[in-house]
Amino acid sequence: MSTVNAVLVDSYDGELVYAAVCRHFEALGVAGDLTPETRIAIKPNLLYGKKPEAGVTTNPAVLRAVIRWLTERGFTNLVVAESSGGLFTAEYMRNVYAVSGYKTPGIQEYLNQDFTFGTRHAPEGSSVKSFNIITPILEADYIINLPKLKTHAMTTVSAGVKNLFGVIPGLQKPDMHRRCPDLDAFVGMLCELCQTVKPQITLLDAVDSMEGNGPGGGTVKHTGLTLASRDVYALDVTAVGFMGLDPREIPHLRAARQRGLLPEEITVTGDRFSPCSPAFRLPDTVKSTGFDDAVPRFLRKPAEFVLDTLLRSYPKVDRTKCVGCGKCAESCPQKIIKITDKKAGMPRKNCISCFCCQEMCPVHAISVKRGLKGM
Ligand code: SF4
Ligand code: SF4
User: Fold this and answer.
1) pTM exceeds cut of 0.90
2) Has residue 284 been placed in a domain?
3) Residue 280 placed within a domain
4) 179, 284, 336, 375, best to mutate for ligand 1 pocket (most atoms within 8 Å of CB)
5) Are residues 222 and 334 in the same domain?
């Protein structure tokens, strides 16, 4: 049985968030795990540099409260470690930290300055034999995973498990997409990565979450919740239920179930909460086909199957919004995006519909269109 602790938090007021972290860490017995020598890595979500109120990144108030909790108890051997969607270099990350509100007292003293990586073998039986992982995570004795609750164009939901993709160094992430080109392979790899990194604690920032075209281009939804657990899968199941979604429909949770990683039973302690109503809006990439009303209920599943077999979602650039920054081309695992006359062009041929391009576009110029597979 796994336990997930819930604490309602109405805003990012520093004292409120700190009180929530105290309750979580008390409930989970975190102090008993640590000594002053324990090397602690805190892994937030910094998809890219974005102001905290945009709901893309783990809010600095949550990170600051975790650091405060640790340092006030003498656990100061810690580092904030993340590799964003772009380059894993000092210069790139300096800008990400600054824009995201991490270059502020109580955080900036602990920001990672080591931009190297190493390799760790994946567990026996994994499809990926080993992972390249950023050094501060590799060297940590204790990992506190600090995800943000968001919808996700490819994986539907980004919470505890998906957040760990940020331990893959910089532009090696597109390479992982290339090696795992379909959704099942990708979410299976995410589970294997999670089993390789094995965070001790996951604390989810769902004070403000993201719905719609997450993880970068959705809209903020005030949800007023934090969840914490020693079991990242139990936390994700609980978070998905809170979003008003069915955990059985979420690809990485299906993959986790197939691998025997989901707990038989989850106990939720702490504050009571209800599933969001209405549920989180899903990304355009995973929305239903829209013909439900026109098709009798008993035919919807087969009709969806036929459409899914014939159609696929592809990215489409709005040339009036595109500023030609090239971030989409940089993140595309298939290297098919070309920037011509300061505008991005995306052919469908060889596109694997990973939506890294949409995720990384800073001006939300990329939308999703359904089209015939391979055309
Ligand atoms: S064009 Fe976009 S969706 Fe297609 S492979 Fe490249 S990054 Fe992925
Ligand atoms: S990331 Fe967005 S703005 Fe930048 S080139 Fe690509 S589509 Fe254009």
Assistant:
1) yes
2) no
3) no
4) 336
5) no
